[in-house]
User: Fold this.
Amino acid sequence: MKSKLRFCLLPLVVSTLAACSSSSSDDLASCIETGEYACQTGDTEPLYTFQWALNYASSYFNDFPETFGGGLDLNIEPVHQQGIKGQGVNVLVLDSGTDLENEDLAPNADPSMSWNFLTQTSNPFPVGLNTTSAPHGTVVAGIIGAAQNKKGVMGIAPLVSLGAANLLEGQHTENAYALAYGGAPWSSRAHVFNASYGGDEDARPYESDVGGGEEVYVRGLKKLRDGKGAVFLKAAGNAFTPGDCGGEPGYFDCTNPANDTGALEPNIIMVAALNATGSASSYSSAGPVVWITGMGGEYGSTGNYGEGIGNGNDGPTIFSTDIRGCIQGYSRTDARTPFLRGQTVRNDQLDNAECDYTYMNGTSAATPTISGVAALILSANPELTWRDVRDILRLSSRKVDADYIHSIPWKGDKPFGALMDLSTNQPTDQMGSSADIYGGATSFPMNLGWQTNAAGYEHSDWYGFGVPDTERAVALAQEYARNPDMSRGGDVQIPAFSSVAYWYQNEPDEPDPDVENVPTREGPFPYERITTLGTLKGGAQIVDQFQVRMSGEEVCLGSLGIAVKSPSGTISLLKHPNDHFKADGQDAFQEYALGSYTFYGEAALGDWEIFSIASNPSMPGKVITRVDGQLVTRESEPCEITDEDGDPVDFALYVEARIIAQ
Assistant:
């Protein structure tokens, strides 16, 4: 891979971070688990009260209404009370490295499913002990599979087998991704992969000779589990912060989850984050390739346990395991809150005396909550395919934050769904809708909210299909077992991209043969308005994902947004104008792709209209960066649209599209 992937967590700072079982006699009568903790919930664990993603109603944080309330959990407890806790499922944590000898991870650790790329051993303990990154994988592992043992926390699937690899430390070693994505004996045993990282900053080529070929490894995951396919969960990112594309307030995601080309592969399940008040975590990346939402919380920066209101958006995060000791983990003697310093006391005992437990936010934390749910689904029915698990997550999901487009961001005065003027690049007082996206319009809606498509499915750029109800998900898994005809064993259909349009100013002397016989248009690029770029003819298929791919020279990528309208009239906003590409005036890109699940389940037959939503490149934006620990504001770099004589610059834009079918 050409660009280094980064963690999908946020630092613990505020930015502009033994009880009795509740099982009933009926629960126990149907219990499939044996042993000391059979069919008991996490009430057996000392820190369970802080695990609001598992036990929202009885959480410690209920006493803090300024940062908690109105939310929900993953409805895990009814499944645990059935004794379904991840038995028989192998989960591989690809991350910074993991301390599998933590007292809460050791009972479930599987060295034969672990690897250290730097030491060439089966011990995935991180080699570099940077306190910002090294503990990351240990936290992720605990969210998924911390044991039920009357110690610390409990994982969502506390009986899984856990493996880990320090892929992010060793990503530049030979064949790292091929080996990690099922190409080695230790990784090929995995049923569920957790990838709490992403590369969402670059306009990376997709399905290209210069793109790195990651899709080959990703598609190979479908061969694992005896052909049923591994389940791969990936973090959507933490880019819903205003600094990269215009300062405060933040009305939309500065980057895009689809910039991580792995997100475009249908067997990669992209996960957004919810906070403890039942709305999107303030940082959670948004885009129509998001499939599902897990629990990520906010920043947890103040209070004893992260319950304080801090500055702006704040509140509790996700509790889990840490690297052992008070020196190398997130919990250490100089940490921000008393719990992280090992100082909090309840029932006359220190909560975290050895600093073996911590908390973390980000889509890095949300993704393992869904990996844990996926493990419970497979534990209930190990014959499910990767498509079955993906479908079950969708079918079991609950709509949250139904009217979020009318909310106003922190420090803002307009709703998230307001129209943005494409000449001033500023939001207006008028609310927008999908009806405002048409050729010739001079403003566009910054968010379309929850949309019900022609297949009857509700989808949101912020939340995907929603937040899973684990009890419902497991019931569906069991229903699939009773009715095997419900399973979908075949792969999705991924055709080649089809040419849609070639737009240029002053045709070159030697036309590119790739654009011969393509619908062409000549003349200046139409900034400051919405324009139809072209159409794609859909066949008699059912949509899984719609994709657009573009190559451009002297085209202001940061001012170019893309929307698509299906034959049924559903509209999806695949890319915002005025995003982070504007910061450095990027004007060249090759086979840069975008994707959307908004149309999932619709009939593909008919004309698909692809729109350019182009803002004003001459209007600079604010860019906030951190230099030597200090926030510095500068203007975005110019992207030239006229030459020295004031004439429109010569440019070329080639647009392709395809429909991935079910």
